[in-house]
Amino acid sequence: xxxxxxxxxxxxxxxxIVQINCTYQTSGFNGLFWYQQHAGxxxxxxxxxxxxxxxxxxxxxSFLSRSKGYSYLLLKELQMKDSASYLCAxxxxxxxxxxxxxxKLIIKP
Amino acid sequence: GAVVSQHPSxxxxxxxxxxxxxxxxxxxxxxxMFWYRQFPKQSLMLMATSNEGSKATYEQGVEKDxxxxxxxxxxxxxxTVTSAHPEDxxxxxxxxxxxxxxxxxxxxxxPGTRLTVL
Lengths: 109, 118
Description:
The complex is a heterodimer of chains A (109) and B (118). By secondary structure, chain A is an all-beta fold. Chain A contains no helices and eleven strands. Chain A has strands at residues 3-5, 9-13, 18-25, 32-37, 44-49, 53-57, 60-65, 70-75, 84-91, 97-99, 103-108. In chain B, the strands form two sheets. In chain B, strands 2, 4, 5, 6, 9, 10 and 11 form a seven-stranded mixed sheet that branches. The N and C termini of chain B lie far apart (36 Å). Classes of the chains: A mainly beta (109), B mainly beta (118). At the A-B interface, strand 5 of A face strand 9 and strand 10 of B.
């Protein structure tokens, strides 16, 4: 079956670095997406990886290992506004997104 | 990035009435749109895949006669919640799918519609 696993909740300190992991199993693979979702709002796109390696975009970076079915989202210089849920989604052979349950990130001062 | 709008952004209705939610892709044509539902503190749940000019494909457990989807044009899909009940109260989010040079899909989300059924 198809499955996405990511931690339910994480806590980090303002200014620090946090890594949110995601493992996936899909029928075919056409890329891995990370979305940010604040409470009561729709998800917003953060990153997309289809090749192995690290993609850096400002304070956020995303990594993919296709052989391990593994990705992580790295957030640096954490700010209070980064408190949100982070959703991992894998694109399967039909280009449909398989969603993880989301990781709630709590930032403490 | 591409823009997807939803209307209305929030709606309150009485039990037994029907509510229509519109999803529009404003600056691109979307052959496929997705409808999601999200209950508080839960992840997105795909309800159905809407393809322009054809019938929607519903996920298991989603009643197609209750959640009517019409994808009449390449920029508009509508979700009608018929005979709404309080348990239908939720956050409904649409997304529009755009092929990017045939390399990968891009899904752009609308802002969501919060439905409250009294």
